[in-house]
# Entry
Amino acid sequence: MTSLADTYADRMKCHPYGLALYHPASTRVLRPGCVGFFDSLRVWTPIAHLEDSESLTKIGLRFPTQSLTVAKTESIKGWTPKVSTGVTERSCGVDLGASGAATGLPVDASLRLEYGTSSDVGAVLITSSPVARSGYYYQSPFKEWVKANARALLHGPLGADIKEYGLFVVTQTYATEKAALTAWQDSKNKAYFGFGVGAMGLGEISPHVQWYTGSSESGWNMHEAEPGESKVVFTAGLAYRRLWPLASQLQRTSSPNRGAVKALSEDRIIVTGPESEHFELGCEVWGSPYEEPTEGDEDEEDEDVME
# Structure
């Protein structure tokens, strides 16, 4: 059976922000420029940061040869709850399930939300305002870096993990101070959530207002950032995975060039290593890239945008 983490990520593909994280990670370990992988539980595992030469050299990786252009951080206000395709949202009055039996919410929840779907699965993400979008312009410097370091990655100390779980290069993150999420795999399920007094609207939910988790088939996952960090709820970037089978795609010679890295196309890389080991990596792009920077962007303050 598909895990809830995979169900959640798959169903939230309808949003253009990238990979939806069932286990939101701290910006201390997952931020633009990071490389790492998501393990069997889909928990983020960092390897290095492309602008931290020490983190690269200690595991035999090279520094990027192309400059990385940082985009200005966007502070997104009006970020309403994100739901998967087919999920409906309904605002419920206090009279609905006032005893708490139906919704699992306390009577003093002044704003109550009901989520349901007619399909077999559903997913919901609720965040506090604002949501910060951080990242880099352009994908080519990151693709070139992977190509230049592919052999060191696959044959290095974390090579077995990368072959198993792939490699994710983070180019953007969407992070917030507080988040709640849930996913379910039964069309009969409904999920309930509530807020205390002071909730002004779904796009301007403060992390300091009381949040109430109600009934849900799988329960609600609550994540609150500690001082000095935020919680990443979506990450955009480049996801590299080992492709199978290689034999039908690789034209071998009687004397292969061991240790070589060859780009089959912009998004495919072949790595040939010792003892005739051959690996092909395919790249999948997650999320929408930043628009081209305009003159003066780097000098502007963080921008407030509406979602």
Observations:
- The two ends are 34 Å apart (CA to CA).
- Residues 247-266 have pLDDT under 50 and may be disordered.
- The helical segments are 4-11, 53-57, 140-154, 159-165.
- The first strand starts at residue 19 and ends at 26.
